[in-house]
Design a protein that fits this description.
The chain has 190 residues and is an alpha+beta fold. It is 25% helix and 32% strand. It has 5 helices and 10 strands. The radius of gyration is 16 Å and the shape is globular. The two termini are 29 Å apart. The mean pLDDT is 84.
């Protein structure tokens, strides 16, 4: 079990404000990942992504997140497990789509490099597993939030009234955040 959290503020904020909020979110979910943590902030656009890691598939530092694709276009924070990630790696290698050697053994690296090669939609159609993740496309300047079809790995999001969006893999992360309306799959279905 890992934990992810992030925020994207409408009007870019100073880095200390983003970092303070992101640190609060990540520290609140430290129980989800005691092995490692990482954050990435782009002050210019007001985006911050954070991760708490429980090392399972790759115990090395090669699995550290947020993780950037080899081209530098994509940045990901990921929670879950991609069951067929070794098969996907093999497909990427056979097709010659992987431009460089693998950095580590994590399914996160497989996911981000598959996205780089096939695009997000086709990658989501090919993966099998339980997951939630946030993917930042630096080129298109788009943030994607995704989770598995059965919702095994939670992903909650909400609006910070007048400020932007916030998300996390655990509701406890939102404790102490004011002017927040949280959404989940239940809100969408009702």
């Amino acid at each position: 079990m890992c934990g992810i959290a992030g925020l994207w503020l409408i009007n870019s904020s100073p880095e200390p404000e983003i970092r303070e909020t992101l640190d609060r979110l990540i520290n609140a979910i430290s129980h989800r990942g005691p092995d490692d943590s990482g954050i990435w902030i782009n002050e210019e656009i007001g985006l911050g992504l954070g991760h708490r890691r429980l090392s399972i598939l790759d115990l090395s530092t090669a699995g550290h997140q947020p993780m950037t694709s080899k081209s530098g276009r994509y940045l990901i924070i990921f929670n879950g497990e991609i069951y067929n990630h070794l098969e996907l790696r093999n497909q990427l290698e056979i097709a010659g789509r992987l431009r460089a050697n693998w950095h580590g053994l994590s399914d996160t690296e497989t996911l981000i490099e598959a996205t780089e090669s096939w695009g997000l939609k086709k990658t989501l159609e090919r993966i099998s597993g339980m997951f939630s993740f946030a993917l930042w496309d630096k080129e298109a300047k788009k943030l994607f939030l995704a989770r598995d079809h059965f919702g095994e790995k939670p992903l909650y999001w909400g609006f910070l009234a007048g400020y932007g969006i916030i998300f996390a893999s655990d509701l406890i992360a939102f404790r102490g955040i004011k002017k927040l309306h949280v959404y989940s799959k239940k809100d969408k279905d009702s």
